[in-house]
Specification:
The protein has helices spanning 7-13, 22-28, 35-43, 51-61, 65-68, 75-83, 92-95; strands spanning 2-5, 69-72. By secondary structure, it is mainly α. The protein has a two-stranded antiparallel sheet. The radius of gyration is 27 Å and the shape is rod-shaped. It starts with a strand and ends in a 15-residue tail after the last helix.
Length: 110
């Protein structure tokens, strides 16, 4: 399962286009982040996000967490799993490489 992060879109809908506008608004709500952290939060996709920060963003942008985070199914991974049949575990003989056979121009094995 993956997700899309819509913070930049929600900021634009509110007329906020610079990451520097967000920092003081977060600080007013008790979320103190560095300039770099705010920039990464807006321009990237966060792997971890505190509930305090999420709640502050929702308050600032007058939205819900569902407006900021959109869950999406990872099609490639799910499709690959569905297409591959379950294989039986390989035994020791199946793990050995197959020896190459050299064939002469006449088509006979050497």
């Amino acid at each position: 399962m993956g997700y899309r992060w819509h913070l930049r879109l929600k900021m634009a809908e509110r007329g906020m286009f610079a990451t520097t506008e967000l920092r003081p608004l977060l600080a007013e709500r008790g979320v103190v982040l560095s300039r770099e952290q705010v920039y990464r939060l807006v321009t990237g996709v966060p792997e971890r996000l505190s509930l305090r920060t999420l709640a502050a963003l929702c308050d600032i942008l007058d939205c819900t967490p569902a407006d900021l985070v959109e869950p999406v199914a990872e099609a490639g991974r799910a499709a690959r799993r569905a297409a591959q049949p379950a294989a039986a575990p390989a035994g020791p003989a199946e793990l050995r490489p197959v020896r190459a056979r050299i064939i002469s121009e006449a088509g006979e094995p050497r």
